[in-house]
Amino acid sequence: MALQQFGRTKSVTKRSTKYVEQALYLRLFKDGGSDVSVRQQLNEVLKSRKRVYKWEVGDTLKKLRERKLYYPALKLSEVMDRRGMNKTVSDQAIHLDLIAKTRDIPAAENYFIDLPETAKTHHSYGALLNCYCKELMTEKAEALMEKMKALNLSLTSMPYNSLMTLYSKTGHPEKIPAIIQEMKAGSVMLDSCSYNVWMRALAAVNDISGVERVIDEMKRDGRVSSDWTTYSNLASIYVEAGMFEKAEKTLNELEKKNARRDLLAYQFLITLYGKTGNLREVYRVWRSLRLAFPKTANISYLNMIQVLVNLNDLPGAEKCFREWESRCSTYDIRVANVLIGAYAKEGMLEKAKELKEQARRRGAKPNAKTWEIFLDYYLETGEYQLAVDCVANATSIGRGDGGKWSPSRKIVKTLMEHFEQEKDVDGAEGFLEILKKSVDSLGVEVFESLIRTYAAAGRTTPSMRARLKMEKLEVGEASKKLLEAVCVE
User: Fold this and answer.
1) Distance CA 429, CA 446 (A)
2) Which one of 58, 178, 291, 469 is most buried, counting C-beta atoms within 10 A?
3) Three-state SS letters, 229-289
């Protein structure tokens, strides 16, 4: 593939029809947007001799990142290096971010260290800071921010926004007003994100009047145009505070700001009207969305069905699901899961199982979430062996992002307590074999429960101490006493 630098910015819409059909991102997404299909298409493109311009690679990277397809994005970015395509400082910042998302923070740090000094601008520093913030690495983030200030880098609102978002996520909203004041003192212009994070920080300490003062300041400032996201944020704050009347007035403002018919804005409207309990407005906005987007996306149906389920409008959810089912080009198990979950919650197990099989026939295999739904149902009804089967199925499938799926500590505790009460050593050991496939360490609580199960059943095992040693676990005094009887040579 001949990767060439192309000086001028190009718009794909202005290219000939023949060339657009061969555009890089269209090639990658021609078999759908799943991670597997995109990776396969990327491999085919890389094997070919297709001519691709630098701007086109950049445009494709942007689309891949928007869809959270980080692995193929990193591979494409690496090809830029190997085949001689010159990277700008922005390209390098994007590459650093992709390394952090697909590998880990140390790998991203090494990439940053190896960059030439001329490339260590506010772009690369800001990308690394953002990585620290997303991983909630407060000390590293604060230290890097201080270094950026010491180097007199040209700071925009972005690094400040990253740091404020970090404080929000780590439960320190009280630190945010001081950062806002620092930005103002340093003549760093606040953007809509800055205002939104500030509003959230005040809402976190129940200062709703403070939130309203921020909105008023934003309007008076005039430099930052309040878009629909600002009103979505404010409406969400009102909803969480139980101030539904103010929330609905704000949602009216949100609709007025959505002149460009942003799909995400419609979805927020539906979700937030749903949280106010206003079913009539939910349906009204849904009709508007359908008119604006006749080819309605799976994600929009998923959102609408979930809202209807939350509002206990199961007939409406079923009708919406049937409509989606008759029109969808790709049968998305996530949409089916919403209705499967609703059926399970209502105790309609047969309907839930029937829908799961129906989805399978349409090419949508159950994912980990599907099995989580049945797992919760079987735990609720006390059908523990079926619950263990669900854990096994979810573990073998894994998460959608390719990571391991593992049951929560609460679920593990519930199942181990069941085996302990039933004196079921074989059941407990079988469950642990499944669990070991998804966790690095079983933990001391699990082993203490296992020891009690052996003791209750009057069973012995000479290897228990060795197992504890391999896991590097130290059990409590009560378990040590039981070990005397359980761990017999």
Assistant:
1) 11
2) 58
3) HHHHHHHHHHHHCCCHHHHHHHHHHHHHHCCCCCHHHHHHHHHHHHHHCCHHHHHHHHHHH
DSSP string, 187-218: TPPP-HHHHHHHHHHHHHTT-HHHHHHHHHHH
Residue appearing with tokens 């991983």: 135
Contact of 10 with 53, CB cutoff 8 Å: yes
Tokens of 268: 């927020």
Q: Give, in degrees to the nearest 5, the angle at Cα 316 between 314 and 319.
A: 110
Q: b vs e for 428-457, b when ≥16 Cβ sit within 10 Å of the residue's Cβ?
A: beebbebbeebeeebebebbbbbbbbbbbb
Q: Running DSSP on this structure, what letter comes out for residue 244?
A: H
Question: Which of 22-26, 355-359, 429-433 is the least confident region?
Answer: 22-26
The secondary structure element, H or E, covering residue 4 is: strand 3-4
C-alpha span between 412 and 454 (Å, rounded) = 17
What totals of helices (H) and strands (E) does the chain contain, helices first?
28, 2
| Phi/psi at 403 (5° precision) | -80, 170
pLDDT at 441: 86
- Residue spans of alpha helices (H) in 277-383: 279-292, 298-310, 314-327, 333-345, 349-361, 368-381
Identify residue 381 by its one-letter amino acid code: T
How many CA atoms are closer than 13 Å to the CA of 282, on its beta-carbon side? 24
Task: Please state which of the ranges 10-19, 169-178, 378-387, 415-424 shows the lowest mean pLDDT.
Answer: 10-19
| Cα–Cα dist 397/275, whole Å | 33
Task: Report CA-CA distances (Å) from 140 to 133, 143, 146, 147, 484.
Answer: 9, 5, 10, 11, 47
Helices (H), ranges, 12-66:
17-21, 24-28, 35-47, 54-66
User: What per-residue confidence (pLDDT) applies to 308?
Assistant: 98
Per the CB < 8 A criterion, the answer to whether 47 and 62 are in contact is no
